[in-house]
């Protein structure tokens, strides 16, 4: 690409003029931008977030379908997948179309608010019309449905990834009402990363423009994994970071929801990690609801928070505490996997 760009420059110096329709890699070669590693959330200061990311796939090129299959395979446990029925939104009645769009919007809002990265993907069976005009009409209905869906998802995503040239253009300008964006770099080679402008529906949100024919089969999965919500820090990690950084971490005994909220709010205000401690007496009185509140608060905090069992006096106390944690995690898993 650099050789081609150099030849093009020489031709331009001799009076030639070119209109370029190229991938992003050409731009960096043409203006001699040094290669940079793919941008990740931490590079933009996005260390933790309270919402999930939104991945929207509308492209039907074979490569995109293979990339979606690989994404499903690699991220099945962490990703929430909503398949949009192309038949429902393009071939059925207006009522059926509206119902399908509403269903996807409802699920999308719920998943994103629950900090789950969410894939909205059109069904992969290509539906065509009897004539080119009918096929074009189907394409328009699918594209406009995706616009309605993204516009209807009111929850602010941690990031948005649009797969497909037309899809990314329509979502940015029509669904998100973006008129300007700052190009931050690339999420992957050939995959531009924007930051949506202040006039858009989600100002400042990273917007990944993923062309349909770019990358190998695992490229989409790689980007989604790079932008996955960071996992909650363990107590060991918090303490090691504190030791290396030469600072202390406050540990606070909590007995109810108000106490939990007070500790987390103070930690967030000070941008400091903290430890929620549950004493055996508090565990006896609060039980599973108290443990559940502590874990939920830690999961949703914008700063690292861990939960600590404080001053257990016997092996049976410890086993009881572990049993309650297991119950909370099982309930959380069950809630996440309910079919809506």
UniProtKB/TrEMBL annotation:
Gene name in the database record: P0603C10.39-2
Coiled-coil region: none
GO biological process per UniProt: carbohydrate metabolic process
Record domain Four-carbon acid sugar kinase nucleotide binding: where: 54-220
Database matches in InterPro entries: Aldolase_TIM, Class_II_FBP_aldolase, FBA_II, NBD_C, NBD_C_sf
Source organism (scientific name): Oryza sativa subsp. japonica (Rice)
Cross-referenced Pfam families: F_bP_aldolase, NBD_C
Name of the protein in question: Ketose-bisphosphate aldolase class-II family-like
Taxonomy, superkingdom: Eukaryota
GO MF terms, alphabetically ordered: aldehyde-lyase activity; zinc ion binding
